[in-house]
Design goal:
It is built from eleven helices and 15 strands. The chain is of the alpha+beta class and 366 residues long.
Length: 366
């Protein structure tokens, strides 16, 4: 078999006729930057996330940047966050002149909320948990810390649209939730896109202005110098179409994980089983194994493409050398980076393919 890790080509083949019709309609309207599809998308997301507001942006990275900026993060400040994330979550902190203060993670790869308090200083401006793999962090405890110290929370929800913790949606816990609609996400555009959610009208109003040069009402009225961070109307049209099948996609991905767990020898590796108060959307399916690199090569040799999220923690990247961290720092994060392996879980897999992957893994460890 030849089993890709993701299957964007298959997605296009299935959606082609509808997508081309949607794209044609969006372009014929003549609103290529702003437009009614954007407003429709924002209302759809706010309803899904159960928040008052949503703002459509050009990437999840810009969502994080604008959120931190509007919560007052400036040069010399500190932002508490994990190191086992995509590079963007830390990059936005450094671009604002602030320092990332890293916290180690639990066995399920989520930030260890019990280690957050001891990292708080007078310079701490924001706590930024990352809902990695579609599994949400322990947001009730994190929000208690936020309230105790009066420190706002920005949720990095890039991988967690429609995930829940204690029946509350991702993006509805903190002051701001920041999402990506990159082509690899469960809800994906046909290029870079993102959005943020909030219940704070002050943030909503400022982001809507800042995303488009700071212009308000007309091109001649600029109250503050902004950015070019808006979502294109075309991407919004595609996302509105794909939103209709998002629940089904998540259901299939959850089913795929169930097939894996029923047919893999669970004694041979670690996977954090979903708890009663969680609803995981499985943007990725990450197991922790011994001999990870050898297994990855073995699967590739037998036609199965895998990935690693992420092979090098951010604090050990060359870009982080100025912070002076070493491999003894964040022991759980470093240890997991050597054992994690992301298996295919996309909605285009069939049961036969998943059973084939399971048989290979079981055979490798037998």
């Amino acid at each position: 078999m030849n089993i890709p890790y993701v299957n964007i080509k298959r997605q296009y083949q299935q959606e082609k006729n509808n997508l081309l019709h949607i794209i044609d309609n969006a372009l014929k309207k003549g609103s290529w930057v702003g437009g009614d599809e954007i407003e429709k998308f924002e209302k759809n997301i706010a309803k899904i996330c159960n928040t008052k507001y949503c703002v459509a942006l050009n990437s999840g990275t810009d969502a994080l940047t604008l959120a931190l900026h509007l919560l007052g993060v400036r040069r010399g400040d500190e932002v508490i966050t994990p190191s086992n994330s995509f590079i963007a979550s830390t990059a936005v902190i450094t671009h604002l002149g602030a320092k990332p203060v890293f916290v180690d993670v639990k066995n399920d790869q989520s930030i260890d909320e019990n280690q957050i308090e001891k990292k708080i200083t007078k310079k701490t401006k924001v706590i930024m948990p990352v809902h990695l793999t579609g599994r949400m962090c322990s947001m009730d405890k994190i929000m208690s810390i936020s309230k105790k110290y009066n420190i706002p929370v920005v949720e990095d929800c890039a991988q967690s649209i429609m995930s829940k913790y204690k029946k509350k949606m991702s993006g509805a816990w903190g002051d701001v939730g920041c999402f990506s609609a990159h082509p690899l996400k469960n809800l994906n555009a046909v290029g870079d896109s993102g959005y943020l959610t909030t219940n704070r009208k002050d943030i909503f109003d400022k982001v809507k202005s800042l995303r488009s040069h700071g212009m308000e009402e007309s091109r001649d009225n600029v109250k503050s110098f902004g950015f070019v961070s808006r979502m294109d109307n075309l991407q919004a049209a595609v996302l509105n179409y794909r939103l209709k099948s998002l629940s089904k996609i998540i259901k299939i991905r959850r089913r795929n994980v169930e097939i894996y767990l029923k047919n893999l020898d669970l004694k041979k590796f670690f996977f954090p089983i979903e708890k009663k108060n969680e609803f995981n959307t499985y943007h990725t399916f990450v197991i922790q194994v011994s001999n990870r690199d050898e297994l990855k090569k073995y699967l590739k040799k037998n036609g199965v493409e895998t990935a690693i999220h992420y092979p090098m923690p951010i604090h050990l990247q060359d870009a982080s050398k100025k912070f002076g961290y070493n491999k003894a720092f964040l022991p759980n994060t470093v240890s997991q980076s050597k054992r994690i392996l992301t298996l295919p879980v996309n909605q285009y897999l069939n049961k036969k393919e998943i059973l084939y992957i399971c048989s290979l893994i079981n055979k490798f460890y037998s």
